[in-house]
Amino acid sequence: MWKNRIKEAASIAIGGHLHPDGDCVGSCMGLYQYLRENLPEKQVDVYLEEIPEAFEPWVPAGVIRHEAKEEKQYDLFICLDCGDKERLGFSMPLFDRAAHTVCIDHHISNEGFAEENHVVPEASSTSELVYGFLEDEKISKKTAELLYMGLVHDTGVFQYTCAGPATFRAAANLLEKGVDAAKLIQDTYYEKSYAQNQILGRALLESIVFMDGRCIASYITKKTMNFYGVTPVDLDGIVSQLRVTKGVEVAVFMYETGSSLYKVSLRSKERINVSKVAAFFGGGGHEKAAGFSMAGTPQDILTNLAGQLEEQFELLEEAEEAGDRS
Fold first, then answer.
1. From the centroid of its chain, how far is CA 191?
2. Which H helix or E strand runs over 268?
3. Helix (H, G, I), strand (E, B) or coil at 154
4. Selection from 78, 51, 52, 46 nearest residue 64 by Cα
5. Burial classification of residue 159, based on how many CB atoms lie within 10 Å of its CB (0-12 exposed, 13-18 middle, 19 or more buried)
6. For domain 194-325, is the CATH number 3.40.50.300?
7. CA-to-CA distance for 112 and 177, rounded, in angstroms?
8. Which of 155, 159, 281, 291 makes an SS bond possible with 163, Cβ 3.0 to 4.6 Å?
């Protein structure tokens, strides 16, 4: 059991995926906060890339490390919300050198790359999984805020189907610790900068529908990002806004990360398993939220993507026809 690893370890590193989102930050910092408060004798360090500005007021200041020293070695590395080792980015060497490794995750594409793995694809978030391991009476308000933030962001403020009864029970228990849910949700989820709203408007204005209106897509180039003065972090939420378009089943959003290299995000409204589509192109994720990277023009990428999406729609239609016949 990985909790025994924590008891035995004198030094612990916690790391999450590249471009950390709300669940990654919430689960990593929530676990950090809990360990620091309840096991102060242990050395606990967190390794993440730069986090979105909106999260900073809710995160302990000066804790997150953005680079890893080559000689550093930990007794235990806990990997959170990360579907594969490579997505740890700069902290991967620390993972490789650690005496023991643990991975806690809910990505369906996770194949269990750590020494001990707790992967539950049905869970709403990694924050929910972390909460399940903690002793409720030892959870402080600060820890509760961080874990609640993770729940909020990976469930779309509890709108997505991944938010089941266990999710709402966890949320209720965390609220009882004194979390100001309204402020946290407004500050970290809904509030956008003027530049973020501008780039969102640009993406929506230039979006296209295809496959008889069942899919919608948009993209942003590096040139456009530079014009508006935004970074990839500022693009969070665009694909989710595309997804709510009436009649659309799958939303696609792409942004340029290098010369003719794009990060592609997929969101499914209800019936299409986009993780299978992403996996075909070397990516991964969840049934209704997945992604991958691909070289080419946006038009080339959409052409390749359309073939896989069409296959998923055909499989869905076959399954529905078989169900009608039975």
1. 19
2. strand 261-268
3. helix
4. 46
5. exposed
6. no
7. 33
8. 155
Q: Report yes or no: 148 and 26 within 8 Å, Cβ to Cβ.
A: yes
For residue 265, which amino acid is it? Answer: S
Q: Read off the pLDDT of residues 137-168 as tens digits, 9 standing for 90 and up.
A: 999 999 999 999 999 999 999 988 889 999 99
Helix%, strand%, coil% for the chain, nearest 5: 45, 20, 35
Model confidence pLDDT, tens digit, residues 45-92 = 999 999 999 999 999 999 999 999 878 999 999 999 999 999 999 999
Instruction: Note whether 2-190 and 194-325 share their fold.
Output: no
**What is the pTM (predicted TM-score) of this model?**
0.89
Looking up tokens 């055909």 gives: 314
Residue 139, class by beta-carbon neighbours within 10 Å (0-12 exposed, 13-18 middle, 19+ buried)? buried
Instruction: Tell me the domain boundaries of the chain.
Output: 2-190, 194-325
Do the strands 261-268 and 250-258 form a parallel or antiparallel pair, or are they unpaired?
antiparallel
The CATH number assigned to the domain with range 2-190 reads: 3.90.1640.10
In DSSP notation, 5-25 reads HHHH-SEEEEE--SS--HHHH
User: Are the C-beta atoms of residues 109 and 130 closer than 8 Å to each other?
Assistant: no
Instruction: Give the model's confidence band at 243: pLDDT under 50 very low, under 70 low, under 90 confident, else very high.
Output: very high
Q: For residues 37 and 64, give the distance between their C-alpha atoms in angstroms, rounded to a whole number.
A: 16
Tell me if 48 sits within 8 A of 17, measured CB to CB: no
Distance CA(45)–CA(39), nearest Å, equals: 13
- Of 106, 75, 97, 72, the closest CA to residue 6 belongs to 75
SS3 category, 251: strand
CA distance 5 to 127: 19
Q: How far apart are the C-alpha atoms of 191 and 183, rounded to whole Å?
A: 10
C-alpha gyration radius of the chain: 20
Starting at the earlier edge strand, list the strands of the sheet with 261-268: 208-210, 215-220, 250-258, 261-268, 289-295, 284-285
